[in-house]
Every structure is written in structure tokens, then in C-alpha cells.
Amino acid sequence: MKKSSLIYLLLGIFSWIFVVSGVFKWLGVPSFDKLFTNIFGGRNFVNNILIILISCIVVATVIWGIKKLNKKIA
Fold first, then answer.
1. For residues 70 and 4, is the Cβ–Cβ distance under 8 A?
2. Which residues have a Cβ under 8 Å from the Cβ of 25 and sit 6 or more positions away?
3. Could you report the per-residue pLDDT of 8-49, keeping only the tens digit for each?
4. With contact defined as beta carbons under 8 Å apart, do 50 and 40 qualify?
5. Does 73 lie in the same domain as 37?
6. Which DSSP helix (H) or strand (E) runs through 34?
7. Could you tell me which of 30, 63, 37, 65 has the C-alpha nearest to residue 51?
8. Which residue range is the domain that position 42 belongs to?
């Protein structure tokens, strides 16, 4: 991964953490954990495993897409 791509990735992550998540909270959009609690119900061992698995799949898909886009651009 190029240095500039890594910088843009980190800027995007930090802007999401500090800016976009605050705007979503202000607008009343549920956070990721509240969404999973509404879908799966209360926390227990099986639900935690499913949530971790789904989160890993989402993160892996985003990283794969970024790498594919980076190869297409370069």
C-alpha cells in the first residue's frame, strides 16, 4: 500500500471516529452495538461470537475493496 493511501485511510478512520459518529448520534442514528443488540437481542456467548464474526467479515470486505481499488488506480 502506498504511503499516501495509508494516510488517507487513517484520516478516514479518525474522521469517522470523531466527526461522523458524533453527527450520527446527534441525528439519532443507532450505533453499531445498539443495532446488533436490536437484531440479536441480549448479550450471550453465541450472540457475541456472531457479532464478532459479522464485524470481521465487514472489516475484511472493506480492506479487500480498498486494496482492489488501490490496484485499479495504480
1. no
2. 31
3. 878 888 887 788 778 888 888 888 778 778 887 877 888 888
4. yes
5. yes
6. helix 32-40
7. 37
8. 31-74
Q: Are residues 24 and 43 in the same domain?
A: no
Residues 23 and 37 in one domain: no
Classify residue 74 by its DSSP letter: -
Distance CA 29, CA 41 (A): 18
Answer yes or no: do 25 and 37 share one domain. Answer: no
Give, in order, the Cα–Cα distances in Å from 51 to each of 7, 12, 14, 28, 56. Answer: 29, 23, 23, 22, 9
Got the DSSP string for 60-73?
Answer: HHHHHHHHHHHHHH
Distance CA 63, CA 56 (A): 10
